[in-house]
Amino acid sequence: MATTTPTKTKKMAMHEALNQALREEMLRDPQVLVLGEEVGLYNGVHYVTRGLYSEFGPERVMDTPISEESFVGVGVGMALMGYRPVVEMMRMDFSLRAMDQIYNHMAKIHYMSGGDLKVPMVLRGPEGPGPNPGLTAQHGQQLTLLFAHCPGLRVVTPSNQYDAKGMLKAAIRCDDPVVFLEPGPLNNKQGDVGEDDYLVPLDQAEIRREGTDVTLIGYGASVALCLQAARELERSGVSAAVVDMRSLRPLDMAPAYASVERTNRAVVVEYAWQSYGPGAEIVARLMRDAFWNLEAPVLRVSGKETPLPYAANLEELSKPQVEEIVSAAQQTLK
Amino acid sequence: MSTSSEPVISDRVAESPEKLRTLLRRMMTIREFEHLGEREFRNGLIRGYYHSYAGQEAVGVGFIEAMDLTRDYIVDHYRDHGHCLAVGLDAVNIYAELFGRRAGVSKGKGGSMHMYNQEKHFLGGDGIVGGGISVATGVGLALKRMGKGGLCVCFFGDGALDTGTFHESLNMASLWDVPIVYICINNQFSMGTRLDRHSSLTQLVDRAAGYGMATEQIDGQDIGVTLAAAERIFAGVRERQRPVFIEALTYRYQGHGIHDKPHNYRTPEEEDPWIHRDPLLILGQRLIEEKIMTGEQIEAMRQEVAAELEAKVEAAKQSPAPEDRELYEDVTL
Ligand SMILES: Cc1ncc(C[n+]2csc(CCOP(=O)(O)OP(=O)(O)O)c2C)c(N)n1
């Protein structure tokens, strides 16, 4: 997909960047429509669809009942007919209700039809413990793995506001079904966003920071933790590179391999539970393809393997910490 | 039992003055509890979600009063503080949960939406809309097998009727003769979406009637009505071992959650008739009419309840946070 570089940028929250992407794509293509809970009249619980209902009306911005399984299916059906539905999950946790539609229909119809049918739809929503604290066990989960596990889906997650806009636009124009995971902790965070029409590719990882001693690999909200850890490591004389995976299916390992060739060490960082997660897949690929460049075992820093607890101290403890990344990085250098 | 879609105005029960005073006090406790809870949210002691029960007190207090909690069970949804109080949990432990403290109902690990208590037969507190409905059906089936005449009461909102699991569960309950009472607390809104914008039928009894169970729509504002209906319906369920669906008409005064501003999607004018039929007001007026209490005594009771709850807030604040090691307790790693 062609990418363009915007000429002007403006600071805005990630939800505003996503809102711009939706608005621009709806203006550009009348087949694009939005559906989900409270996306219309209410303007979206996380503000992503703000203003779209009044601008585009109830035919293109549809408030749905609390019927996740079936309104994801409605999205699949409309996509089969040539529309480009963007289906919002108020929180990605609620997609668990819709897993049959996601796994068995959205992901597979293109393949099962021998390529005859296409499902150009986007399933999007916030995941993980944020933007606000106290989301607890059923609302703040990081379920990235469930989507990334399923062939047929593209699974992407932006780590910053600029990518959020460009990647959502690319996702809407993509003919494949895309699961677009919005890092909850970043929803209200500000950053530079291109003002004009630009796309960011859906299948390319990116080196966010060059370094020579250790490579920190993250995706979504964990990239910010890696960057913070890299700044702290710099103070103690360690040069850390940061790789933003951006897409989890397909998984673009090339930038990570290139960085590890220089640093010979890696730490994979994620909010998700560790066992069997995307980080496990990244480590397995490093083992296979970068083994001879590694000087130390690849370490991991993850969300703790418990349901998200409520108490403030436990909640904080359950998330991946910058200090844990710093100490893992130092351990690879011992 | 009727299957009509008209509200059934059952006769109020002739309860003893003592009982009526107790019921008023319980509803007041819930109202004041939420009031102070919201204040503590704004003070930063409570984080995440806070769904107030204010306005809906006559539903929970009426139905729970009629239960036999030595053998009956409750499965609730996330708007659960009022029901926790009604089953007799101490406000200290509920506040402590909201503050994320060790003394909390769920040891500080669950938060507002996830209160559970085995002893009081209170099985949550569920954050997933409709998530408790099938669980409640299983609880009801177990109670039937156990043969002690127990029944399950399942509370949820009007929004939950839009989930598949609602329909699947009612079908099974009817098929298997489960002693369960499904209570839809129809407060007119699913978050910011008015009933007629999310439900194809606005008489919600009609959406349940297709499963061959008795349904009944009741006035959820008058505790005389909810209590009388509950006593009659529970007796019928125990005897017939059949499920029943209740639609209790009521209103939530606050936003859906604490951050929600209801005047973005409803007007103060439309709230008026509901506020004029406030459950505390209706019972208060009855107590005055029946010369059981004076207006001054009611106000004094309210102040006493508020002062008691202030003390509970303070007591809850004294509880320590859970210890770090508790993060890994009660879970298979
Ligand atoms: C499966 C699922 N989808 C969406 C949500 C988000 N959500 C929480 S409450 C709610 C509205 C429910 O309204 P209703 O069932 O009428 O109950 P009320 O809040 O009015 O008591 C929504 C959409 C959720 N918790 N679970």
Describe the structure.
The complex is a heterodimer of chains A (334) and B (333). Chain A has 334 residues and is of the alpha/beta class. Chain A has two domains: 9-194, Thiamin diphosphate (ThDP)-binding fold, Pyr/PP domains (Rossmann fold, 3-Layer(aba) Sandwich), CATH 3.40.50.970; 206-332, Rossmann fold. Chain A has helices at 14-28, 52-56, 68-80, 99-106, 109-112, 144-148, 161-173, 222-235, 254-263, 278-289, 312-318, 322-332, and strands at residues 9-13, 32-36, 61-63, 84-88, 122-127, 154-156, 178-183, 190-194, 206-209, 214-218, 240-244, 247-249, 266-273, 299-303. In chain A, the strands form three sheets. Chain A has a seven-stranded mixed beta sheet, sandwiched between helices. In chain A, strands 9-11-10-13-14 form a five-stranded mixed beta sheet, sandwiched between helices. In chain A, helix 1 (14-28) packs parallel to helix 7 (161-173) and helix 8 packs across helix 12 (322-332). The longest helix of chain A is centred in the N-terminal third of the chain and has 15 residues, at 14-28. Chain A is globular, with a radius of gyration of 19 Å. With 333 residues, chain B is an alpha/beta fold. Chain B has a single domain, classed as Rossmann fold (3-Layer(aba) Sandwich). Chain B has helices at residues 17-42, 57-66, 81-86, 91-98, 131-146, 164-175, 195-198, 204-208, 223-240, 268-276, 279-289, 295-318, and strands spanning 73-75, 152-157, 180-186, 189-190, 193-194, 214-219, 244-249. In chain B, helix 6 (164-175) links the parallel strand 2 (152-157) and strand 3. The radius of gyration of chain B is 19 Å and the shape is globular. Chain B starts with 16 loop residues before the first helix and ends in a 15-residue tail after the last helix. Chains A and B meet through helix 11 of A and loops of B. Bound molecules: thiamine diphosphate (TPP). Thiamine diphosphate (TPP) sits between chains B (79, 127-129, 156-160, 185, 187, 189-191, 252, 256) and A (37, 66, 68, 90, 94, 97).
